[in-house]
Recover the amino acids of this structure.
């Protein structure tokens, strides 16, 4: 697939919740790193942070997004699918798209 140009220094934000594990979930507020080109002409983003400190603890995560997914308005999103590290005897799953950014 041929991808259109994108701003190399763009990033994405997201506001989501983790899976509900051990009787609770955490809010996950995120801003990605800049775009990293891929061999197929798309790009990905990395992200590394902690979910919000809730229920007496937090969880660290480090992940790389899927490739750019074009939207009809000329923007694009990336899907995320990762697990946090274990803390307090459990971990959480985070999945879904981030917020749109211009170009693909």
């Amino acid at each position: 697939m041929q991808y259109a140009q994108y701003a190399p220094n763009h990033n994405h934000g997201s506001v989501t919740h983790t899976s509900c594990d051990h009787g609770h979930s955490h809010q996950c507020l995120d801003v990605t790193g800049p775009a990293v080109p891929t061999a197929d002409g798309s790009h990905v983003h990395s992200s590394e942070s902690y979910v919000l400190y809730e229920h007496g603890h937090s969880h660290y995560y480090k992940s790389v997004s899927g490739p750019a997914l074009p939207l009809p308005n000329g923007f694009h999103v990336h899907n995320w699918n990762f697990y946090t590290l274990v803390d307090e005897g459990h971990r959480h799953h985070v999945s879904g798209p981030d917020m749109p950014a211009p170009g693909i």
